[in-house]
Specification:
Chain lengths: 178, 317
């Protein structure tokens, strides 16, 4: 059941990243749903399972990115391992500790992913602009995570309410199109 | 405290890193197939997400539109309420003014608790018969009262020589020159010459007749009074009203009433109706033609208005 929930969370994160993230941009900064999901997985799944899931998330992220496959798989696995080693004493019940880890983790993932892509595909080093973009995206993602954690129940209810209605509309739309 | 299997995690990370390196060097055909599969798996979710976003946008725009409409409706309601209040105030004011018009000076109170004093002069209407033409001829010839000149019953030649219509009242009942003559509420002329027992009446159409007059217009909420002027006879069947300034509105059908401020009657007395009203370019006054409401030659009797001292005032003091 836990793994099903992880898979569903990852799927939602990928969907949001690929379809809605750009529309949620504020002053050019958009949230990083995939990295948020990855950090969530690492925080709440112990051992090699968490690293494996992180690798899977990185691999799927590679699939929806235009860059070479494998880059995010490698980076996500290594960051997940590092986070697990660092967060040995993490208190999952503490919201402050959780949020305090989210921002640097997402920042690390974002900068590392962008930098690796630039190096591998174009042979360029990341610039200050890239760093600033990554920092802004990470901050946005952290605020979003805080909002979701605080309003998790309400958010789940809204998702549970909206999702069936939207899915039913989608089915109706698909039926009329065919 | 959470216990982590570091070795398992490290081993997994190493394996995934190796796999990633391997995949990085995989042929493009294989990687493209994997990408297509990934996009196909994500597509339903993406459509759901886009539908949700569009639905949320539609709902929010409808909500904002509903709020704006509600605000606009509230503003319209406020404006309507203000307009209705203003209308109500004007209706009350109009009703008050109408009541004032219906109750002239004698019935109004200048201050709470004060009573209007009795007038100094009170109207006294004297009935007088118009002497027909045949009788007037005989009267002028002195053939009606055949008692001889020594009895001092001879009418004044001053009256007998006047060709104006005769009435059977004179000094004997206290008539004096200039008193107005009425037929009901219509002014038909005024006393021209007064004899011992008879007098002559100058009709309103006589070229020497003149009186203060005022224009009036009957509306749904009462009579509205307009400009004042001088009503003069022209020697023809109509009169004219002069000295009505061009800034006032005059139209055919307007009423012409007495313009004096005596206020002896609780109602205005009537001269006639405007039948023609012309205003030349740059003319300072209107040229108004008035048709008299009554024709003296068609009447058999008139009432002469006399003013007498109010004996009630004498008794009160």
């Amino acid at each position: 059941m836990k793994h099903l929930a992880i898979l569903a969370s990852a799927y939602v994160a990928f969907v949001l990243q690929s379809s809605v993230a750009n529309q949620m941009a504020i002053r050019g900064y958009s949230p990083e749903f995939v990295w948020l999901a990855l950090v969530g997985i690492v925080l709440y799944v112990n051992g090699w399972t968490g690293v494996a899931w992180a690798g899977f998330v990185g691999f799927v992220f590679d699939c929806i990115s235009p860059d070479r496959l494998g880059i995010n798989l490698i980076w996500a696995s290594l960051v997940a391992l590092a986070l697990q080693l660092i967060l040995k004493n993490h208190n999952r019940r503490s919201l402050f500790q959780t949020i305090a880890f989210v921002f640097p983790a997402v920042l690390l993932l974002s900068i590392g992913s962008t930098s690796l892509r630039l190096v591998v595909s174009a042979g360029n080093m990341p610039t200050a602009t890239v760093m600033t973009q990554a920092a802004g995206n990470s901050l946005y993602s952290t605020i979003l995570a805080l909002f979701l954690l605080v309003n998790l129940k309400t958010a789940l209810l809204w998702i549970g309410y909206l999702f069936p209605i939207t899915f039913r509309r989608f089915l109706n739309h698909a039926g009329t199109m065919s | 405290m959470r216990h982590i299997s570091d070795k398992g995690s490290i081993r997994t990370a190493v394996m995934l890193t190796a796999a990633g390196i391997g995949i990085a060097f995989a042929p493009d055909d294989a990687t493209d197939r994997v990408r297509i599969i990934a996009y196909d798996v994500l597509q339903p979710g993406q459509q759901v997400a886009r539908s949700t976003v569009n639905w949320l946008r539609l709902k929010s725009s409808l909500y904002i539109e509903a709020i704006e409409q509600a605000q606009a409706q509230e503003e319209y309601n406020d404006q309507l309420e203000e307009t209705q209040l203003a209308l109500r105030r004007l209706q009350i004011k109009n009703a008050t003014l109408h009541e004032v018009l219906q109750n002239p000076v004698g019935d109004r109170h200048w201050a709470p608790g004060s009573i209007a004093p009795s007038p100094l002069a009170v109207p006294d209407m004297l009935h007088a018969n118009l002497i027909g033409e045949e009788s007037a001829e005989l009267w002028r010839a002195g053939l009606i009262v055949d008692v001889g000149s020594n009895s001092q019953l001879v009418e004044s030649s001053y009256v007998l020589e006047d060709p104006l219509p005769l009435i059977d009242r004179g000094h004997d009942v206290g008539l004096s020159e200039g008193l107005p003559a009425y037929a009901g509420r219509v002014v038909v002329g005024k006393v021209a010459r007064v004899g011992h027992w008879s007098s002559t009446i100058q009709p309103v159409t006589h070229q020497e007749f003149s009186a203060l007059a005022q224009l009036a217009r009957a509306g749904s909420q009462g009579v509205h009074y307009g400009a004042k002027g001088i009503l003069e006879g022209t020697g023809s069947k109509t009169c004219r009203m002069r000295f009505v300034e061009s800034t006032f509105a005059v139209s055919v059908g307007d009423l012409v009433v007495s313009g004096g401020r005596d206020g002896l009657f609780p109602f205005p007395v009537f001269f006639g109706t405007v039948v023609k009203a012309d205003l030349g370019s740059d003319a300072p006054h209107w040229e108004i033609e008035v048709a008299p409401a009554a024709n003296l030659s068609e009447l058999k009797s008139v009432h002469i208005l006399r003013k007498s001292f109010n004996r009630g005032r004498l008794l009160a003091h």
